[in-house]
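Note to self: user wants both folds in one dump. Writing first protein now.
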Amino acid sequence: MKSWKQSGWSGVLEKLIENWLDNASERSYQPVFVQMLSARGYRVVHSTRHTALEFGRDVLAIAPDGKGCTYQLKGNPGGKKLNLNQFRNEVQPQLVQLMSQAVDFPGFPSEPHNAYLVSNGYFEEEVQVAIGSLNRMPYYPSKVSLISRGDLLGRCKEFGASLWPGELEDTRILLEIFLSDPKDVLPTEMLSQLISKILALQTPEDNLLGQPGFQRAVTSAALLTGIATSGFAEAENHFAVASAWTLLAISVIAAGEKHGHRLNGVAFETLWLAVASVGDALAQLWNEVKDRKHIVEGNAITDPEVYGWRYTTILGLLSCLALLDESCHLLEDESREKLKQWLLQRHEHVKLWGEGAVANLVPWLVWLRKNDPTQRPDWEIANLTEAVIALNQHKSISPLPGPYYSFEQIARSQMRLDKAGEASAVGRETFAGSAFTAEPLFHLLVRTNLKQTCKNLWPNFTRLAHRVCLPDNAWEYCTLRIASGVDQTMIYPSTYQWAKLQAEALEPRGNSLPTELTARPWLLALWWQVAPYRYKTAASSVFVEGILPGWGAWGNLGA
C-alpha cells in the first residue's frame, strides 16, 4: 500500500483533511480526536454527547502512564485564531474549572490531572501568554496545554491518512462522500469500499494483517469514517452518522475475525468509541423526535410519499437505542422513560414498503415482547408475519421487493422516476412466490407459542420459496457484499411436526456469526438498519436469544 509521501494523491488527501479541519465544529471533530487519543495509547473513559456542558470536560482519558487527562474542545473553523477577548469571555471560566476542580468520574484517577484546550484553529500569542499565567498560579493543581490545528493535522497524517487507499478511484470516492449532500442518506456502499480496503477485507485469505498492522488499520479506518462523514454530523443527520459508525464497528469485528486477532487494545477502544458515536447520534435523534408532534420534513405536500419509510426507519433506530441503553445506560432516567412510552404506543404510520422494512420492525417487536406483558407483542408479530407471507404469494399483484432494494430504488420504480439512463432492476425482477424474511418471521411467531395461528398460516407459508444467502466465512456476514457463498432456497412440506418446528425456531439452519457480534445483539440489530438483507433466520435467532434468553423454549411455554 502506498505511503502518504509516495502517493501521487497525497496533496489531494492533505487538502481534504485541511478542508475538514477548516469547516469542522467541535461536535464533528470530537469523534476523530478521541480516535487519535486511542491510537496514542490513551484509554478514553468519557466523551460528552454535547447535551450539556460538563465543566468544560468534553473528553476524559487516562494516559499510558496512568495520568488522568481532561480535554476541552473548541471549534474555530476556517483556521481562525482564538483571540484574547474570546478566551476571557468564553473559555477562561471553563478552564479555571478544568484546572481547579477534581474529576468525579468512575475509574478516573483522583490525583491532579493534565488539562488540555483543543482547537481546530490557532491560538493568538496573547492567549498563549494568558495560559502561561494561569499555569503559574500556585492554587491550580492542574496545568493546561494547548493542542491546535497543526497538531491535529499532524496526527491525522501520522495515525490514519498514510494508510488510506491512494488510487485515483479511491480518492474520487472519498471526495464524493465528503462532498455528498449532508441531508441525504449515507452513501454506505462507497464508505464500505474504502473501509474494506483499509482493513484488508478484500485481500485473499493468505494475505492477512499482523497484529501491529491490524491495529494501525483500525485507527486509519476510524479517522477516515469521522472525516469523510463530518458534513453529515454538521448537518445533524443522525441517521447517516449512526449508519457510518455502525458500519465501522461491524467492519472492525469482521477484520478481527478474518485476520485472526482478538479485539483488544486500540481495536477494542475503536469499537467502543464507534458504538459511543452511534449512541450519541441516536440519542440526539430521540431528542428531536420526543419534542415533536409529527416527523414531517421539508415540503408537507410531497412528504407523504416518504413519511411511512421515515417513520418505520425511526422506529427501528429508536428501538435499537432502547436496546443499547439497556446495555450501557446512555439516557437519563426521564428520557429513558419517555422513550419507553413512545415505543409502547400504537404506531399507525408504519409502512411495509418492502422486505427491507422487516429489519426495522423486528428490533421493535422483540423489545416490545420484553417490555409489554400483554399479548399485544405476540399479535403484532403474527400480523407482520401474515402480511409478508400473504403479499408474496405466487399470484400477488403487489409483492414486497426483496431486502436488497432500498426504499429509494423501490419508490423511483413505482413512480417511474428512475434516474436518466438507468433501468430499474426492481421492475425487472419477480418477487411473487418467494421471500427472504418470511422464514425468520415465522420462527419468531413459533416462539410466541400461538400454535393455531401458525397452523393457519402454514399452507401459504409452504407455497413460498424461502431464500437465504449464506457466506462461506462467518466474518463476511459483517460486509455489505460477500465474495463467495451459497444462495439457498427452502421449500417446506405441506405437513410438519410442531415439536420439530419449535426446535428449528430455537436452533435454525444457517452458518454462524462472528463471536464479537453474537455478544452484542443490539449491534446486530443496528447492522440490520444499515444492511437489511442481513436479517436472516440464524441471525434472528441469535438476536432473540441475546435479548430474551430462552424465549419460546419448550420448558417455558409448553408444546
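First done. Writing the second protein, which came from a different request thread.
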Amino acid sequence: MYFATKSRRMQILVWLIWAIACLVFWTWPAQAVVGDRSVPDLPTLPGIVTHDPGNGPLFPWHPRHRWRKWAWRRYCAWRRAHRRALWIARLARLALTGALTLAQLVDLLTHSQVRRHLGALPVLYALLETLQVRDIINRHCSTRAQVDHGTVALVLILNRLTMPLPVYQVADWLGRTVLVNVLGIPAAKFNDDRLGRTLDAIQPRCREIWQDVVQRALVQAEVDLHLIFYDLTAYILHGDYTDSQYVTFGFAHNTPMNKRKFKNGLNVAADGNIPTEYAPWSGNTADLATVQQNMEQLRRFLARRGKPIEEVMVVGDRANLNDELALAYKDRKIRYLAGLKTQKKVHRELLLAVPEKQFYAHPLTDDQGSQGYWGILCQVPFEHEGRSVVHRGLVVLSGPMRTAHRRARAARLRELREALREVEAKIGRPHYRTVKAVQKRAETQLKQSSVGKFMQAKAYEDENGQVRLCWWVNRYPLWQAMQRDGRYLLVTNDWNLSPRKMLALYRQKDGVEKRIQVSKRDLKVSPVYLHKDERIEAMLLINMLALLAYSLLERQARQHGLQMTTRRIIAKLQSLDVVETFCWDGSYLIRLVPIDEEQAAILQVLVQVLAELRLPRWPHPLLPPAETRLCTLSPPARHQIVM
C-alpha cells in the first residue's frame, strides 16, 4: 500500500481508522420490521440517506418505462440465441464429418516440421564413400578435432558438385541439406575458419591423396589408359597475393590479360574423360614449358599402375609440340599425336606444297562438301641442338574451318571498305584537304585492320585538282591466304596410325577441353578468393576430386544407357527434398517428397551404377590391403534415407 507520508505514526492511524470502519459494518443489526414485511435493517449512520420503495420512486420526474434498458435486454437475448444456433450447426457438421479429420489430428500431434534439401546428395555421397575419399584423407591427415579433415573435405566436394559457394557460405548451405542428419554434426561446426584449417592440413599431402583416390577410381571403374589427352588452362584470382609462386599476370586464351591467374595442367583418359593427373603452374608459364614435366609425371603415374608407357599415346594441341619436344618424346619413348604451329619455313612449306584439288582424292571422313575433311601424308623434320628426327605428318584440309575463315575474312574486308569510304567522305574537311593527309588516314585504317595486307589505297588529284581516294584488293596475297584456309598439320611418331585414325584421335581431344569447361562453369573453380599458395593447392585438390566424381558418374551412367551429363542428372534431382516431422511426444518421421517417373527412372539407373562400383576388385595388387573392404553408407540408422 502506498502512503502519502513516510511517517510510521500516520500509517498506524490510517490502519486504525480502517479497522474501526470495518468493525462497525460487520456488527450492525441485520434485520428490521417495516409494516408486515421483514426487510434488512438499514443503517442510520450520520450523513447517509436511505430510500423506502413504499414511498414511491426516488426520482418521480424520470419516466417509468426504460426503453433503452428494454432494447438492450432484447439485443442480449438475440445474441445468445445466435450463438446457440452456431454451436448447433457446428455440432451437426461434426456429427456428419466426424469429430476430427486426419489432417487436424496430425496438426494437433505435430510440434514442428523441417524441410531439408536432398537432390542428388545421396548419389554423390555414396559415390565419394565408394572412392573412400574421407577415409583416404583421414589416413594421410589425422586429427584429434571433433570434426575430422576427411568429413570437412567431403562437405566441400559435395558443395562444389551441387551448389558451388564461397567458403564462408558453406555452413549455411549445409544447414539446409540432409547432410546435417547424415553426418550427425551441427552445421555451425563447418565455419570458414575450420574449412581453412582443413585446407592447410591437406596441402602437404595433396599429391598422395590424389594418387590414392584416382587409383581406386581407375580400379573400381576399370578405366582404359591407352589414350590420354593433355591441355593447360588458367584460373582467375581476386585479391592481393604477395610472394606467390603461382599467382601472376600472363597470357591465356579466353582470360583477360589484366587479371591475375594461375594455370593447371590436366591429363584425362579418353575412356570417359576421367582426370588422371594434374599440376598447378604459374600464371605466366607457357604451354610448351609444361610438356616435359608432364611426360615425367605421366611416366611415374603409369609405373604405379604397372602399365608400360610405350602402350600409351598422349594427344595434345598445337601448344604441345616443337623441335625440342619432338626429340623429348623420342628419348622417353612416348607415343604422341599433336598439332604443330608452322613457325619454321620448312613446316609452312608442307602446308602449301599440295594444291587444294589434290586433297579431294584423299577423304578422311564420309562427309563431303563444306563439312568434309581431307588429308595428305607427309614427313615432318625436326632439329634441335644438332640432333634431328623425322616424324609422320598429315596435312589436313578442314571444310568447316575453311568456310569459317573465309567468312570471317570477308566480314573484315567489308568493315575495311566502310572505313575507307568514311575517309573518302571526309575529303575537303580540315586535316583531309591534301593528298598526303588523306593518304596518311587511309594507311592508318589499313594498319589497324587484320586484313589490311590484302588491300591497297592511294590518294591522288584528278584533272580538276580535286583530291580523290581509291582502293583495291591485292589478289595474289589474298589467294595465298585462301590456300592456307582450313589447313593444319598433325604430327605423330607412331608410323602405324592411318590418316583417318590420326584425325579421329585428334578430334577427340576436346574431351579434356570439356572437362576444363566443367571445372570453370559447373564447379566454378574460377574465380578464386584464397590468398595463400597452400590453400590454392588444397582447393585445387578439392575441385579436382569433384571433377573426378563428376566424370566417373557420367561415364558409368552412360554405360548403363543414361545419356545425360552429371550436371543434367543433378538438375533433374534438384527438386527432391526431405520433410522431418517432430511430434509432441518426442518421436519424429522422415519422409521423401513425391518423385515423378523420370526421377524414379534416373534413380533406378544410378542405384545400379553405385552397386556395380561397390563390387570388390580385391585382392588387387594396386590397392593397399587396408582398403580391401566394401564401402557402404554408414550414417546412424535413424537418419538413413532409402530411395
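Dump finished. Worth passing along: Confidence is low (pLDDT under 50) at residues 30-40, 626-643.
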